Input
Amino acid sequence: MAYVIAEPCRSQRCAACYAVCPAEAIGGDYHEEQMYIDPDRCIECGLCQEVCPSGAIFLEEDLPEAWAEYARLNREYFRRPTT
Output
């Protein structure tokens, strides 16, 4: 199971997770609604979760049910067409 970035990131987008990810699995920037984790690249090291000041990062299996849609949103972010 990969990590997932959920709703609390929408108000922060600090990118601390981006800076520590050794797998370069985190995408998004200040122009996006939030940061996202690519489940195909995530190595489940947990560094992103440790540095997240808003508590927005969860292992997919621990994601609160109210935020279950964020697992899909994280996956879809990396599957969207690029222009």
About this structure: The longest strand covers residues 3-5. The mean pLDDT is 93. Helices lie at 9-12, 16-20, 47-51, 69-77. The chain is about 30% helix and 10% strand.
